[in-house]
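Run log, item B.
One chain of 171 residues. Sequence copied directly from the ordering sheet:
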Amino acid sequence: TSCELENCFVCDTYGNTKKASRVFFENLSGTAKTGIKYEVRIDYNTGMAGGGGPRQMEYVAKNSTFTGHINCRDVELAHMGAILLASNELHLGLRRLGGGKSRGFGQVDMKTAGAEVLSSDGLDAALQQYFDEDEGASSVLLKRYQLKKDQYDAFQKLCINEMVKKLNGIK
């Protein structure tokens, strides 16, 4: 749906019906073990068991593993903060994905393996301490920068702090 707020940070990051998202999730690939769970249909008007017998729900079993990428376009550090905060909340079990959450489904453990930046202008001076140029992967038009392994926590803190500043209207 479309948000009523003129400058909504969430809509600016993830998009809405009128604005494209800055964040794109690739299809995940991996080893999925699935199962079937049977439940009694409930008539929401009466609160009693509904007709038609039990319904079945297919689910992805615990300990299934998937990998994928989250691609971003024209993001500021504040937008990265929103993405990294959401990732942390999934990792800590504070948020769930998909349907059936009230029935115990949707718990995921999301781990971020790293980050890279593609830029035609080079890196902003504030980011240079967090990233190294990947000279073998850079081209004439774009330079590729890889997040330093020991800088993830510091970069995440910087991004989340920038998000908080933006939400509070601080420059």
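Observations after the first pass:
- The longest helix spans residues 152-167.
- The beta strands are 23-25, 29-31, 34-43, 48-60, 65-67, 70-72, 116-119, 131-133, 143-147.
Flagged for discussion on Thursday.
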